Queue: 2 jobs
Job 1
Amino acid sequence: MALRGLTRRLGAKLIINDDLELALASEADGVHLGEDDGELAAARRRLDAAGPGKILGVSCYQSLSHATTAARTGADYIAFGSFFASPTKPQAKRAEVGLLAAGRASTGLPVCAIGGITAANAGELIRAGADLIAVITAVYEADDPGRATRQFVNLFEENP
């Protein structure tokens, strides 16, 4: 709950990855689910019952058809990846950059890019249509995580 308090104080959204129960128990703003994390329609119903405006994000990997299904099921954003080699999930299959624009065009939803994203390669994904990026290693293993985070924010400001 300390993280929930911090995000509220800072006006940031707290999205829990892969765990609907934890998202609900922590009063998070939403949850991001992968293909093995539960049934999307049931997750949408439970989030709606928890209060207005709860966010459901869905990993669609390399599948545009999964993205359109997620949109019909109540997703608030869709995610594609892995776009680059990732130390977090080294065996992840690669997604084509064109999926970002295609996903938005076919669903009308914001699109998140996931997988191996660094400050050096994020601009390419943002220019290709990513509205959001998911980053782990580039921030958590940085000498200065705050500075690393600001680099990503600057990339969105430079590539509106």
Job 2
Amino acid sequence: MSTEEPEEPTAEQARHRERMQRRKAAVDARIAAATEERGVLLVLTGNGKGKSSSAFGMVARALGHGMRVGVVQFIKGTYSTGEEAFFRRFPEVVYHVMGEGFTWETQDRERDVRAAQAAWEVAAALLRDADVALVVLDELNIALRYHYVPVEDVITAVRARPAHQHVVITGRGAPPALVDLADTVTDMRPVKHAFEAGIRAQRGIEL
């Protein structure tokens, strides 16, 4: 057993400990003040990669807590994705792929509007279902941007949803009214993307 006296902290170590103690006290105070518990609306928007990936990360987290999840994909529908293949394995997940592809691929506005409105009917039903704890409306912002679905209908349904239900809405160009309503908004900003260097979409990364 060592009988050596512990070394006295240096002045730099003491200052660091003091700073961390102050920071911990501030963080603990903010956590203690956050007492409200209810469902939240998250909007993931911007031109950068990762909006849908973030939403599906929350799906995995919700499943870890034994929650039921509903997913509606508004645009992506012409190719299979890894997240669809994975999450369809779980009976707790209701998964709807309702889109018919990106607008520049379909080149048919009426068809896009019909698909988006059909997807919205499914989404609205999930937003009324108290048994569904998390609803992910993937690429809904794009349908709103092109006026395939009225933003007023979305805001009304989100406001009227069960109090405990969480909602995640993804896609570029989130309308200001939806941003104002949201509890959490993340704007993904592109810095660099492999596609710009001629690298095609990769399984496990984009697909």
